[in-house]
Amino acid sequence: MGPSACLRIGGVRVVVTSHIAQMADRNFYRMVGIEPEAQQILVNKSSVHFRADFEPIATEIIVAVAPGAMPLCPSALPWTALRPGIRLKPLGPSFQ
Questions:
Q1: Could you read off the pLDDT of 19-48 as tens digits, one per residue?
Q2: Ranges for the Microcystin LR degradation protein MlrC C-terminal domain (predicted)?
């Protein structure tokens, strides 16, 4: 993650890093002095990578969808040349 810092903005702490890194586990918070299990709310800018380590401590996971190069659900992409029968999401309709 490179040099990192925990900024305090009012009652909110924000972790910033100098290099892009996927939120793989709770140690990303611990390295800047935040104990994840002691927090009421954690917000991760990640869609999948965090789940394996955070789900055991989460009461609920809320997913926010934001615009960007890669949507949360690949079925939202404008596919035009997939092999017929490929499913765009689990148990979803087949590409025609």
A1: 988 888 999 999 999 999 999 999 988 878
A2: 1-80
> Which residues fall within 8 angstroms of residue 10, CB to CB, at 6 or more apart?
none
Question: Per the structure block, which two tokens stand in for 49?
Answer: 């990578």
The model's pTM is: 0.69
pLDDT band at 94 (very low <50, low <70, confident <90, very high): confident
Q: Which long-range contacts (CB under 8 A, 24 or more apart) does 15-23 make?
A: 22/46, 22/49, 22/50, 23/49, 23/50
Domain regions of the chain by residue span:
4-64, 70-96
Give the residue from 62, 86, 83, 85 showing the smallest Cα distance to 74: 86
